[in-house]
Design goal:
The protein is mainly alpha-helical. The protein has 10 helices and 4 strands; from the N terminus they run αββαααααααββαα. The chain starts with a helix and ends with a helix.
Length: 355
């Protein structure tokens, strides 16, 4: 028998065997046979089934819903580009507006910022059903209102500035500790350190990350709110004492041995509780630290000479706290103004019919 005839016979036998194996398999929907995907040496052919990957077939309702979604969003690429352009432009223009506002009308800017910090986050919290934050905010507001009332008393007691600065120093220290705790918790859970050390499972890590974000927000929010509150009160108290004036000469002359912030004597207290500035004026250490670090003032209350803030840093810990204070300054835009900007942009989208 010729060699080509033998090869042809082998091919015919193989084809018949494959056809017989396919005829022995069940038919799929529509009457079509499964496709022969390959041949198994020790058994029947390996077949490829449409649902072999384990994914269930889509129901007619799912197919209809997907088709409806695609029909509704067909050609929306231009709308999405317009929405992105409006959002980015609004953020840039709002930041420029805030800079100009702060430069030419600093007093109204700080007042609006403080009002926004005090009202916007709790309103959003109530809308989101976060009553835990609302309760903490209410407790802080009650105590803070009492402190503000003491600062606006006329005549003001000489001990009031120190008590005010002490209260906001406590608020700052607590918010700083809470913020650092939340930040470390977020970092540890983000890099799966508890999971690597077999301390917690993946589900516990997710809860740790969520708790860290909440704790970090608490620290940043109340730290920023307290810091902006004391800015307004520090000017008010210094003007009431009489040794400070925002413009022009103070109402009183600062004599030697008197603290120009609280009005009490400085020669009756230990020398290690005092701080002498480069201009030669001496203040109680808690008063000048509250005036500069907590109250964000960088000049002498009496002569307006620049204060070297580095001289007030008694240890490296104060330097890290200064970085945290800079972070609080940046957070006020995120907490007070960005939600308002987003709400205005949302209204623009609604009026323009953008979805």
């Amino acid at each position: 028998m010729p060699a080509d005839s033998g090869a042809k016979g082998v091919a015919e036998v193989t084809a018949k065997a494959a056809a017989a194996a396919v005829d022995g398999q069940p038919r799929i929907e529509g009457g079509a046979r499964p496709v022969v995907h390959g041949m198994n040496v020790d058994g029947p052919p390996v077949l490829h089934h449409p649902h072999h990957n384990g994914m269930p077939p889509q129901t007619p309702e799912q197919i209809a819903a997907q088709a409806k979604f695609q029909a509704e969003h067909a050609g929306h690429e231009s709308q999405h580009a317009a929405m992105a352009w409006i959002l980015i432009s609004s953020l840039v223009l709002s930041q420029l507006s805030f800079v100009i506002w702060k430069r030419y009308h600093a007093r109204s800017f700080h007042a609006a910022t403080l009002l926004g910090l005090w009202l916007v986050p709790p309103i959003l919290g109530v809308q989101a059903g976060n009553y835990r934050f609302s309760c903490v905010w209410l407790l802080y507001s009650i105590i803070n209102c009492w402190i503000v009332r003491k600062a606006f008393e006329m005549p003001m007691r000489s001990s009031t500035p120190r008590w005010v600065y002490k209260w906001y120093t406590v608020v700052y220290n607590i918010s700083y500790s809470i913020g650092i705790t939340g930040y470390i918790t977020v970092l540890l859970s983000f890099f799966h350190v508890p999971l690597i050390l077999h301390i917690a499972k993946l589900e516990t890590e997710a809860k740790m990350f969520e708790a860290g974000i909440i704790v970090l927000f608490y620290g940043l929010y109340f730290g920023t709110l307290g810091r902006d509150s004391v800015v307004v009160l520090s000017d008010r108290m210094a003007v009431s004492v009489g040794y400070y004036s925002k413009s022009g000469f103070p109402a009183k002359h600062l004599r030697s041995g008197v603290c120009g912030i609280c009005g009490d004597a400085t020669d009756l207290v230990p020398a290690d509780t005092l701080h002498k500035l480069n201009c030669g004026h001496t203040y109680h250490n808690p008063c000048i630290r509250g005036w500069t670090i907590i109250g964000k003032k960088d000049v002498c209350p009496f002569c307006k000479e620049k204060v070297d803030l580095k001289s007030l840093h008694r240890n490296p810990w104060d330097t890290s706290q200064q970085l945290y204070l800079n972070l609080l300054d940046a957070m006020r835009y995120l907490l007070a103004y960005i939600p308002v900007v987003f709400y205005i942009v949302h209204l623009v989208f609604e009026v323009s019919g953008l979805k």
